[in-house]
Every structure is written in C-alpha cells, then in structure tokens.
C-alpha cells in the first residue's frame, strides 16, 4: 500500500480468483513463471492462492509452494485468501503476511458459499482477527455488496448493517466491496462507497472488486476512483469469475484497468507492453475463461496502426 | 428528441455504421425486417443508411429503398448520413427529414476520409445547411474529437477551434462528439463536454458516439451522461466501427447502453427482452464484427440464473 493519492493500486487476483474455476490443473512451475512475469510488469500485490481444503479447490492445492516461491520474486506482496480461523493459522504458519477473508451480505449467497449465515461468518472473521498478529495485513472482501445472483439488488442498508458488525472488530484493514454479479451500475458504486466512506472514516483503505460481465467493469472502476477508492482488484486476461454465481464470469481485466488509468494519466506502476504478452499466455491457459478488451485491441493496433 | 431530462435517447447507428464495413451484401428485405424489429424494441431514431456513391459503399446502395420502407414502420425517426451538399439534396428529395454530416478535427483523418482539410469540410457543411429547409433536423458528427488513429490524442483547443467555425453556421442542431478510436477516457469525455457545453450554450442538443474497442464504451457513456449529455449513439450487437480507423472496431453495443441505463433507473424506452433476440440475429450477419457483453451475459443468465 505504497500508492499516493494520485496513484491507483491494481491488485492482481487472477492467480486465485482466475485460476480457481479452471478444471485442468495448471502446473505449479507454470503458475510461478506467470507470477514472476506479472510482477515484472509492475504489479506488486497478487492474490496468489487460497489456504483451503484441497478437496474443495484442487486447483489451489499448491498455494504453500507458490507462497514459498514468492521469496524469490523481488517486490511481490503475496496475498492469500483464507475461509476461516483454522486455515488462517495455517497460512500464518506458512509465512503469509497478507490475508484476505470473504463473506457475503446476502444470506443465500453466503450459505451457498460456506453454509453459514453472514452473522456466523462475521463471528468467524472475529476469531480469525484474534489469531492474527498486529503486523499481518488484512483484506476483508464483502461479496454481494451490490447485488446477489439469488436475491437481486442488495439494499445499501443491508450492506451497511453488516459493516456495522465488522468494522469495529478492526478498522486498520483494507475493505473491499465486491460486485459479485457484475450488475452494479456506476451510480450504485458511487452511492454505496460514498455512504460507507462517510459512515466508516476509520477504515484504512477501500477497494473495489469489479466484474465486467455486463461491460460495466471499467465504468464502475472509474466511478469508485472518482469517489476516492484507490485499490482495484483485477484479473490478468480477465480470467475467472465466481463459480458460485451462475453466469457471473468475467473479472475486470488487469490490462483494461491499467489501460484506462494510463489514458487518464494516473500511475499504476504497470508497464502494459510487458503485461500484454503475459495476458495473452494467461488467456491461452486450457480451461480458462478469458475476457477484457485491451489485450486484443492492442494486438490489432500493433498490427495495423502507428500509435497506441 | 422527445426525451426528458431524466431520460436517455439511444440513437441506433448499426444499420449505417455497423453495416457499412460488412462486405457481403445484406439483402434489403432482411435490413427492413431487422429495422422493424429494432423499432419494435423501443428504439426510435435509427441511422438507416447513407446517401453516398454506391461505388464507395455498395452495402448502403439501397438507402433510398430503406427510407421508403420507413413509411410503414410506425414511430421510426430515420436519420441518414450525407457526405456533401449534392448528396444532401438527393436525400432531401428522397424524403429525408433528419440528416447527419460528419467531419474530423484531425487533418490526417479528414483527408483520409474525404480528401479535404477540416476547414474545407466545414465550408461544405455550410453549403449543405444553406440547401436545407428549416424543418429538416440536423446532426453534426465531429470525428476524432478526442483522439485520432493517425495523430493520437487531439488537443481540446483544436476541437473547440473547429466548433468555433461550425456552431455559428447553425446552433439549432444536435452536435455529436465522436470517439473514433475508442481511446477517449472518461475524464477526457467529461472535460471536453464540459468545455464545449460551456462555450456553446446555444447548441440545442449534445450527443456522444462512443466506441468500446478498449472496454471504455460504457464508462464514457456514463461520464457524458453525468455531464448532461442525453443522446448516445450505439450499434445493436456492437456491430461496426470505422473502416478508416485501423483497429477501431467496436461501436458500443445498444443492448449494453440500454442495460446500463436500466440498472441506473433511467428510461430509454427500450425493452431489452425484445432487443436481445434482434441483437443475436445481428451478431450472426455474415461478415459482421459483433461486440458488446450484455447479449451473451443475458443469454448465460437466462440459462442458469433465476434473476436478471
């Protein structure tokens, strides 16, 4: 979190969110090589995997090895997702220093994901926090903050009521509102962030996890940026989506977000010319669901046009 | 132009901008059938074709027939593109009551399109206006208002200098700023519209022609909306792009724009459930270059999920 007010931090979530829905196992060496290349393009924070039952998510069973390999990737800030206190402790023991936890505002979505109510998940989050040393960074992901695949649009009051339980537990975190379905509109993003930022000024940092399923990924990133959000999840090659949200393929693509900010003159630290070939290789991963526009547009432009 | 301040007008340009780059001739009867279905989805103004040399654009050689067929399509407001005074008179004689003219801010792009300087095209526009009765509506398209495929980013001062020549000729028009390359960013859209609307308050109506080549189509539409723009060009199925701008495929898709406004609670008069099947048929036109997200996302959602 070294970005200034005039810079945007892009958090690369492809290696976790993008890979987890891919059936054929991506060889660990290939994951590490892609990770190294992503970081060499200027990305720093990467969600590299998840400490979770290997039976539940076999694609992420090598997270411990990936985490260890990060010691040899200069500049990387590896973030890992954990589903509960137990796996949080495993992640800590394996050397994690940036953990992410997720729960949903929507009862139906949370039960579908972890067979618990949102309030029960909030209690689990409290136990996880209690087990974490002070020097461990924390990201809290609020899924279905805007909209739920089962229940439709989520009322702002519901999202805020859940945050009323969560924020007092620890304010020194990064709090990420997630558009799980991709159906948040830019005015909704603006309004919910405005309400949350006003109600919870003690939160250290706000983030947006945007999906591009309906083409609104960049519109929503821009809207959150205008509101003062400075951290944005994105997946290289637009890989992934939520396997529990039917039809919700399509994380916003890292290269699309980096492109927009570059056109706006806002620093992300990302070198697009280095990133695009990695995104092209990511899009070619067998079983992957790639998305985004910039990858193909820049390839077309390179073939035809004199300027980017 | 019957929209209120709280409503957005989507101008369907697929039948001209989307079709003109398609090599295999689309049978006239098929064009008329698609046009009828587009209007039945709630679209009113449609750029149905271009009065132009049939040798230059053989796909649009049947514009006179299409225009005549509009007499039997209740509610349609047919708009036609004309390249100069001569073809403007032909369009008037054929019964056109809504004409569009285009010129580029960028010298290189204008010369590439019509082998004239922008100032020479401005004079042609003056001759066209002089030939038009008062009851004929006029749309003026400013190509490369933001960015040029040959010259890169266009300075705001350049766009405004050209408008200084054009606006005094007739203010009672719709003035459309066109993102020819798709490389305008939302802050650029906001800033240029703000500057133009302040300098030319006499202009009756402003419009944006957005491209989605780099995924910024909806972000730019939203940005213009925030600025007070109420008319937006879009192409069903995302068909088309500028054949003279290398790599610049991808008009923003009508269904994507309609979707965003619906999620924002803003009326466009478009019924998406009627439009999507037409967009699917448009995407299947042989030789077409479809784009957009909502068409496929809604199809996936209909197959899997309980709610839109």
Automatic annotation (TrEMBL), chains A, B:
Q: Which SUPFAM superfamilies match?
A: Aldolase
Q: Does the keyword Amino-acid biosynthesis apply?
A: no
Q: Does the keyword Chloroplast apply?
A: no
Gene3D superfamilies from the xrefs?
Aldolase class I
A single GO BP term for this record reads: ketone body biosynthetic process
Pfam families referenced in this protein's UniProt entry, alphabetically: HMGL-like (PF00682)
Tell me the CDD domains matching this sequence.
DRE_TIM_HMGL
GO molecular function terms noted in the UniProt entry: hydroxymethylglutaryl-CoA lyase activity; metal ion binding
User: Which InterPro entries does the record associate with it?
Assistant: Aldolase_TIM, HMGL, PYR_CT
List, for all copies, the residue spans of the domain called Pyruvate carboxyltransferase.
Answer: 8-276
Instruction: Print the keywords alphabetically.
Output: Lyase, Metal-binding
**Family from the record:** Belongs to the HMG-CoA lyase family.
Q: Tell me what this protein is called.
A: Hydroxymethylglutaryl-CoA lyase
- This protein's species is Mesorhizobium zhangyense
């Amino acid at each position: 979190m070294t970005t200034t007010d005039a810079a945007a931090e892009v958090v690369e979530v492809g290696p976790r969110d993008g890979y987890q829905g891919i059936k054929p196992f991506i060889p660990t060496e290939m994951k590490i090589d892609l990770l190294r290349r992503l970081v060499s393009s200027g990305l720093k924070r990467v969600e590299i995997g998840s400490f979770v039952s290997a039976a539940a998510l076999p694609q992420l069973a090598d997270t411990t090895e990936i985490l260890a390999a990060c010691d040899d990737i200069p500049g990387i800030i590896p973030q890992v997702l954990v589903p509960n206190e137990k796996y949080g402790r495993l992640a800590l023991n394996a050397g994690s220093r940036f953990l992410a936890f997720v729960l949903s505002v929507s009862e139906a979505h949370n039960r579908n994901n972890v067979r618990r109510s949102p309030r029960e998940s909030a209690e689990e989050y409290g136990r996880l926090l209690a087990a974490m040393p002070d020097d461990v960074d924390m990201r809290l992901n609020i899924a279905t903050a805007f909209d739920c695949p089962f229940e439709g649009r989520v009322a702002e009051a519901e999202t805020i009521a859940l945050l009323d339980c969560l924020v007092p537990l620890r304010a020194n975190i990064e709090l990420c509102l997630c558009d799980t379905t991709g159906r948040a509109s830019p005015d909704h993003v603006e309004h919910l962030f405005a309400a949350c930022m006003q109600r919870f000024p003690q939160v250290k940092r706000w983030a947006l996890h945007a999906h591009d399923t309906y083409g609104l990924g960049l519109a929503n990133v821009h809207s959150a940026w205008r509101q003062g959000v400075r951290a944005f999840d994105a997946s290289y090659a637009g890989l992934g989506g939520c396997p529990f949200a039917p039809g919700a393929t399509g994380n916003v693509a890292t290269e699309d977000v980096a492109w927009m900010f570059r056109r706006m003159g806002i620093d992300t630290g990302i070198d697009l010319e280095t990133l695009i070939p990695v995104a092209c290789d990511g899009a070619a991963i067998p079983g992957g669901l790639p998305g985004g526009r910039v990858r193909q547009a820049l390839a077309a432009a390179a073939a035809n046009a004199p300027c980017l």
